[in-house]
Amino acid sequence: MNSPFNKQANSSSTPKNKGKSLPPKFIIKVGKTIWSTLWHQMMSKLAPRNKTGDYIRPASQFRNFIDTQPDNPYQPEAGRYRLYVGLGCPWAHRTLVARAIKGLEEVISVAIVYPDGDAGIWALQQEEFGCNSLPELYNLAQPGYKGRSTVPVLWDLKTNTIVNNESADIIIILNSQFNQWATHPNFDLYPENLKEEIDQWNEKIYHTVNNGVYRCGFAQTQQAYEKACNELFNTLDEIEQVLETKRYLCGNQITLADVRLFTTLFRFDIVYYGLFKCNRRRIADYENLGGYLRDLYQLPGVANTCNLDQIKQDYYGNLFPLNPGGIIPLGPDLSNLLDPPNRDQLIKIDHVY
After folding, report:
1. Is residue 99 within 8 Å of residue 303, measured between CB atoms?
2. Residues 171-185: tens digit of each pLDDT
3. Catalytic residue among 74, 138, 214, 248
4. Residue 286 annotated in active site
5. Are strands 81-85 and 109-116 parallel, antiparallel or unpaired?
6. Are 178 and 76 in contact, with CB atoms under 8 Å apart?
7. Which ranges are annotated Polar residues under compositional bias (predicted)?
8. Which of 41, 224, 265, 341 could form a disulfide with 219 if both were Cys (CB 3.0 to 4.6 A apart)?
9. Is residue 90 domain-resident?
10. Which of 81, 84, 89, 286 is catalytic?
11. How many domains does the chain have?
12. 151 annotated among ligand-binding-site residues
């Protein structure tokens, strides 16, 4: 039976405007093409790559040392030098850990810089020497400087210049050149009898773990990613076995090899596991590596160098190509880092602390 109500319903169910729309498949294809092109352009600035898509980390440019050689302009002095660090950066974090372990908080000052996600630079917390950003500070040290402006920076307040911007060098300097003012002057993170073993660990860990997580996260081809990921977890598995019988990488004494590994391990479950696709296994899932991380974290002064919120903000909030939405995760809960390391059988009473 027909009724006015049926006619009204039928007429209202028919769109008045039959505007044409692009097919969803076409929209998706165009969107992917545009985003892929922009992504590669942004990644080329963020993470230089080779022909196979592997991330290639540029070398540091300032490699001067502080020592007591008569002809060296950079002599050890308390209060003369400052560290510029970003709290989210693992390379800068190394210097804070070494500074804390040696007890140099009153000897080497620290200035915190923060990432400016829109400009893609590190910004100073407040103006210093007429500079508001790290690139300006680099240009003050070397007028016309065109390279990367990275942290950490070891700055000479006497001559207003950069001494060194390579974290591997800076932690060696902190370990050896300020002992007369250090709280722990006899604690040697780079002892002569262990240097060869430390250097071997550093070489392997740098390529496959410290830089390995970035090679995973910044890989621009599937092949490059899988290669980096396999190497990363092969090394983590190897370290897991070593830590079965050793408290630290080189035995009972913490060394620079442990300092360099710690800052990557601390960020692993927070950032690298998800954002950088290093998701085969969490550090918390490793019995020995997990306990080792807790052991290092609980050493005096070390936890104070770790800023979970800033790390998440720096990675998730500022690495736009990896996280376009800028959404920062609520987790993980790291309260477990205060749990007992459960490595009592490896802890000796003669540990330096």
Report:
1. no
2. 999 999 999 999 999
3. 214
4. no
5. parallel
6. yes
7. 1-16
8. 224
9. yes
10. 89
11. 2
12. yes
